[in-house]
Amino acid sequence: MKQTITIIGGTGPQGKGLALRLAKAGIPVTIGSRDEEKALQCADELNNKLKDNRNLIIGTENNKAVKDSGELIILAVPYSGHHATLKELKPFLTGKIIVDIVVPLAQGNPKAVDMPPEGSATEAAQALLGDDIPVVGALHNVSASTLNDLSRPINCDILVCGNQLDAKKTVMNVIKTLGVNVYNAGLAESARCIEAITPILIRLNISKEVPFSHAGISIMPPIH
Q1: What is the mean pLDDT of the chain?
Q2: I need a surface site. Which of 82, 108, 214, 216 has the fewest CB within 10 A?
């Protein structure tokens, strides 16, 4: 049996999409929320969308979700709750790897970022938790709409960054099960660039001059 992955903020659009994709790949998922009833309802809703691997998604409140999780905890909360959520969960995170997918979008303007003093949300999380709890930045540039549409493959390569190589490798191996290309983009400071790509994609996706939406990024080899 594969280890359960917990998604904190799993009732939001990004969290729901990741839960569906992971469950589709046969990985058990626990959705964590401050509101346990909301998490339970969300889990039922998502399980009903899965033709196979149904009932791999469960819901509960945040602290229990973390305690019952396997090694990986995905943080998918809005940036406004990023720091507070980590502070609340920190006592339960020993032995865990935090996968931080949060992008610090500017308040009221999703076409810009408002980076914290540490340089990025990923770096802020690592500073807050300390070096004993590895933080891996990943999945910043994938559209929530794309994740939730199981009829289509994910149209985005995934850039992963963090200061601990073993933790990055663990996260990369899990993300590969979603059928995407995954690249080690370096130390946590690389998140300053990776997180900043998201508002650019948002700008393009809402532009009337671009004939498509929900774009992702692709790392392309040389064309001969």
Answers
A1: 95
A2: 108
